[in-house]
Structure formats: C-alpha cells, structure tokens
Design goal:
Shape: globular
CATH superfamily: Hypothetical Protein Pfu-838710-001
Number of domains: 1
Structural class: alpha+beta
Strand content: 35-45%
Order of helices and strands: EHEHEEEHHHEEEHH
Length: 240
C-alpha cells in the first residue's frame, strides 16, 4: 500500500494525444489560455542498473514503489537551466498522480530530491554532505554521481514544450509537448497535451479541477493516456 503524502509535493495531470498541435493551440486560446513561452527540454531518466527490460521497469515503478530520477536541461531562448527531479506514483499503476520533488541542479538540490528516495542514495548523500558551500553542478557531474550510486541513464527524451496559462485558472497549467523521435514509431502520435494542477489543494480537488477543464476543452475521460510521453517512449527509445 502506498503512503500518500500530506504535503502538496505532488502533481496531478491528465494527458491526451495530439494529432494537430495548431488545432489544440486554437482550442486553448479560445478558452482563455495564452502561450507562456516555448522551450526545448532534454530529459535523462535514471533507473537501477539491475533493471534490464520494459517489463522489469514497469514492475519496479508501477508496483514496487520505485522512484524515477530525472536530470533536465531546459533551454528557453538563450537561457539554459538544469533541474533534478524525483517522482513516485501515489497509487500503484496510476500515472495521473505522483510525488514531485524538484530543484535546481546544485548540491542542495541533489539533497532535496534524492533524500526521499531512501537508502539507495545513502552513501551519495553522505558524500554530498562533505561538499563545501552549495555550488552548481554540471549535467555531466550530476550524471556521474547518480551512476556511482547504482543507476543508469536509460532513457533520453528530446522534447519541445509550449506552456499555456489562463488568468482565470491560476492553479492549472497546460503543456503542449512534442517528441519528434516518436514520429517514426508505430505509436501513432508524437505530441500530447498535459493538463496539470499546480495549486495547493488536495488530490481530490486537483482531480476535480482538471476533469472540469478537460471536459470544457472537449476531451473525454475514455481518451486519457495511461501515461505521459516519456513513459510511452520507453518501448521505443529506452536502452537497457
């Protein structure tokens, strides 16, 4: 049984496949959403080195309470930002709600995101405690540290994201994502819209808010994607 945190360090989102991004943008803008800028993201996902197949990854993450760890390079115009994130499902096999610990890629950020993962990173966290100050880390440095703790960089996702916000719905963000590498696969689509609750309410409030919006935008519950594009991409892009 999963322990659902009482704090608001979680994210709730629903996702739908997109065949025509331009049409989706028009629908969002007609509802009052405005683009809040576009960015390129390169995500590196890390899992324990002993996992050797998509089936093993599913068992570990969906049912065994595994924590996914992500390093993200975010490029907006001429600005580059590095982030580290850890995620765990709140309920088995339900990808709509997860814990979400995220921070800038520096020593404090590493401690913040890896501490909840538990004993797996105990030695690394002890090593980080010996660092003087809180200096920023390069992607390569952080990757080397995570790999030294028994993880591997098994999935790299290059993604174009456009974020939309509506002043009347301050607790919701809509992200239009495109992963070009999926276009040549038999998945059938390479873009998706994510409707994410980012407020301070409960999980039930988050779900109700997102579902009300999704219905307003014309999406049906039966069409919800079971997981985000990175999860769907494992079958096609992961290297175990």
């Amino acid at each position: 049984m999963y322990n659902i945190p009482m704090s608001n360090q979680f994210e709730y989102e629903e996702r739908y496949k997109v065949s025509d991004p331009d049409t989706v943008q028009r629908v969002l803008e007609a509802d009052g959403f405005r683009p809040n800028g576009g960015e390129m993201q390169t995500d590196h996902w890390f899992i324990p080195k002993y996992i050797m197949s998509p089936a093993e990854q599913t068992q570990w993450f969906d049912h065994d309470k595994g924590y996914a760890v992500r390093l993200r390079e975010q490029v907006i115009g001429d600005r580059r930002k590095l982030l580290i994130t850890s995620k765990q499902l709140l309920r088995p096999a339900d990808h709509s709600a997860m814990t979400n610990n995220e921070a800038d890629l520096n020593i404090d950020g590493m401690r913040h995101t890896l501490t909840p993962v538990g004993s797996e990173f105990h030695e690394l966290l002890a090593e980080l405690a010996t660092y003087d100050g809180n200096h920023s880390l390069s992607l390569e440095e952080a990757k080397r540290l995570i790999e030294s703790a028994g993880r591997k960089d098994y999935l790299i996702i290059n993604k174009q994201r456009t974020t939309f916000r509506n002043a009347q719905l301050p607790d919701v963000v809509a992200d239009l994502d495109c992963v070009p590498a999926l276009a040549s696969t038999d998945l059938g689509f390479s873009a998706a819209i994510e409707l994410e609750y980012s407020g301070s309410g409960s999980l039930d409030e988050a779900k109700a808010t997102v579902r009300t919006l999704s219905a307003r935008l014309g999406y049906k519950q039966k069409d919800i994607l079971t997981m985000a594009l990175p999860g769907l991409a494992i079958k096609y892009l992961a290297v175990f």
